[in-house]
Amino acid sequence: MPARRFLAFALAAILWPGVAGPATSAQAQAAVRKRVALVITNATVVTVDGARRILAPGAVAIDGTDIVGVDTPAAIAAAFQPRQTIDGTGQIVMPGLINTHGHAPMVLFRGLGSDLNLMDWLQQYIFPAEAKLVTPAFVRTGTQLAALEMIRSGTTTFTDMYYFEEEVARAASEAGLRGVLAETIVKFPVPGAKTPEEGLARNERFIKAWKGNALITPAVAPHALYTLEPATLKACRALADKYGVPLIIHLAETRAEVDTALTLGNATPTQYLEKVGLWGPRTLAAHGVWVSAEDMTLLKAAGVAVSHNPESNMKLASGTAPIVDYQAAGITVGLGTDGAASNNDLDMFEAMKFAAFLQKLARNDPRVLPAPTVLDMATRDGAAALGLGAKVGSLEVGKRADVIMVDVRGPRQTPMYDPVAHLVYSAHGDDVTTTIVDGKVLMRDRKVLTLDETAVLAAARAAADTVRAAVQK
User: What is the pTM of this model?
Assistant: First the structure.
């Protein structure tokens, strides 16, 4: 090639890559595509964003801890060059589920003392068993079992109030789960704290140790008005305010709690806690079954969010929370399973279905609490209730990559006309194939990568033998 022609060709290749031939054009295109860690493509993407976008087909790009792209497969392919690709054909990609209330280590009490009301169940079975059995090792084993169940059923963030909460935090973070966790504070001796003052001190040490962690948000957890004196409730509020962390409490779960509040302060549980000075920002009230319109006004004014736990409320015959009224009042409502001892599982898909069905039955109206609203409760509203709305709860660029994939190719999932209705009314936790938290793949193709499943189950069965022997004495 003559020198002049060669120079002209070279200059053209630099200034106008497209004229230099197919190979050079492809190289130039690859050069402008951003390298990312992972792309999930060819899936039905249910974003749960503000517009409730559904991309069918769609794709999600993940880099580091963050979502960096949510678009059509063609658009994502043009913009990103992944180091790893997951083909989502026949699957729904959605935000990870957010469980806003529970007691993770209590999976080891699963099925203990069935068919009882709350107070009989607590006093005859749970409180005595906890006094005998709960140790740091017991809590760690229980949390690992719970983490295994949650990862396998698509929960990526969970809320916990229990004892030896540092063990819950360690086990959860090692498994890769996100958590809002707190030491439970009560007025009688419990594992790890003989007095409420010891419980507060443990809770403060826990906050100091975990505040600022990427996955674990420490909180304060006064158990309930019927297990604490007013002075301790005030101290819990002060501790939460001192460190700017969430406060979690059981509220108005049963009629018996209403009677207790009337006896103590001639008030409803919500009003009693208002008089004590407990309500404030970053507060999550679990259950909230027995509340009045005036109670809702108080909760709304204080910025309190509510965690709805339909399965536990039904199993213990505690009542039906007025979820439709909460939402009409502008109160944020998340969804929870409660502990597996009173549920008896941690499957948030099941919680979605029961939440919808319970409200429809109670209101005698199939239109109340429709599937999109329930899915919001299990994702974006749950994140907002925990103060994590800017980080997780929807598939949007800039949010943390907490993502799950749900297989919809099986007979129970066929045919599929409405992906959101499918997720709420047809899907089960064991339809989840892949679970990702903070950009890290915790489970892929149903294989959990962050826990030794065989070892976790063996340890749990050994702990169950101890529980069985203790309750039979």
Answer: 0.92
